[in-house]
Amino acid sequence: MDMFLPLYFPSKAALKLVIIGGGYSGLSALITIREYRPDAEIVLVDRQPYHLKITHLHESFRRPLTDFKVPFSALEKRFNFRHVMADLTFDDSTLKKWQYDRVIPVGQEVVGFDYLLVATGAGFKKLEKSRQVIDLDDFIERPAPEILEEHLAAANSSMPWITAVGGGATGIQYLFEIAHFARERRIPCRLRLVSSEQGVLTQFDPKLGRYAEARMADLGIEYVPGHFFRGQEADHVVLESAETGDLSELDSHLTLLFIGKSVGLRLHANFFGQVVADGEVLDRIFTAGDCSYYRSLGSNAMTAQSAVRKGKLAARNILRHSGLVKLLEPYLHRDLGYLISLGPQDSVGWLVSERNVVAGFPAAVVKELVEAQYDLLLAGIDTYIL
């Protein structure tokens, strides 16, 4: 091939790789391996039949849901790997056994490997739901307009309330998509955001939150800070004050829960992405994505950017470790920006420096360009710089 990877001197030995998790990091690693080793035998284990472009999912109010689900069957043909649909559970002791045995049980078969990459990502925090409460799982399974219109049609009100719970990036993005969707379709409803914090987007520079709150006010979205969601009863949402513990009820005919990510197993890795279990470096098992914590100077943020970069770094180091000279590359990536959609033509976030806040239509254009880079990767065109 005409691709060049620094510090990689390939051997003639066959390379067998198993990747657990077909999200951003898993696929980025798979595609990177395939660039340099077209002869590698790759097995991808994922419990779903499709790769989900989760960073785009809020756009399902204006685009078909199928746009964000890429069948693994199509990717299998494009990148020459085998997808096995299975859900694996494991812990550090299991990984140590796999490292020693070089085999992994998957469904009804046992798969051998030279290297294993664990890229299981993170799920979403879940609460018990009633009929009038929905979360991201619902938006993954069914088209967003269908869900919204069905619930509003069943509401016993001519001007029903929709409450979004969660002032993080996901809650904000869905809130603005619903606001623009309702306005475009002329759907009568009132919107509210409930957050346990005193502001929105509190993990970022305060300017981001202030801009988002100003745009919420422009769209007539009610904001209730400093309250926890405690349940949905009939046509009311039950809230608890974070300060006093007092309970209150507000009209709400539909409640959307966006309460953050949940990592079941966080794997610790060294500078190079190799798993460290009970103080032992498992040199044939790497990890990447939201499930991983690298002991290095690089970003451990649970973002798509970090997931892609960790996946590519782990793949490059698997290649190097399988080669003639085992000189590995440390993980040093820092995110160069983060942008949050506030509807079809508006975004807010930061670029280059977290203090360099950008907003409006130009920020929305940059966000689309950044996400288009990953779409190119899925098409087999790698534009990422090492």
CATH level 3 topology of the largest domain: FAD/NAD(P)-binding domain
- What is the highest CATH level, the class of the largest domain? Alpha Beta
Query: What's the gyration radius in Å?
Result: 22 Å
- Provide the low-confidence segments as ranges: none
The quaternary state of the protein chains shown equals single chain
Helix and strand composition category: alpha/beta
Query: Which strands sit side by side, in order, in the main sheet?
Result: 5-2-1-8-21-20
By CATH, the architecture of the largest domain is named 3-Layer(bba) Sandwich
Categorize the overall geometry.
Answer: elongated
InterPro entries: FAD/NAD-bd_sf, FAD/NAD-binding_dom, NADH-Q_oxidoreductase
Organism: Methylocaldum szegediense
Domain FAD/NAD(P)-binding: 16-311
Cofactor: FAD
Characterization of the model:
With 386 residues, this protein is an alpha/beta fold. The protein folds into 2 domains: 16-122 and 263-334, FAD/NAD(P)-binding domain; 125-260, FAD/NAD(P)-binding domain (3-Layer(bba) Sandwich). It is 30% helix and 28% strand. It has a 6-stranded mixed β-sheet. It has a 5-stranded parallel β-sheet with strand order 10-17-11-12-13. Strand 1 (16-20), helix 1 (24-36) and strand 2 (41-45) form a beta-alpha-beta unit. Helix 1 (24-36) runs parallel beside helix 8. The longest helix has 19 residues, at 304-322. The chain is elongated, with a radius of gyration of 22 Å. The model has no long low-confidence stretch (mean pLDDT 93). Residues 16-311 form the FAD/NAD(P)-binding domain. Keywords: FAD, Flavoprotein, Oxidoreductase. This is NADH dehydrogenase FAD-containing subunit. Its cofactor is FAD. It comes from Methylocaldum szegediense.
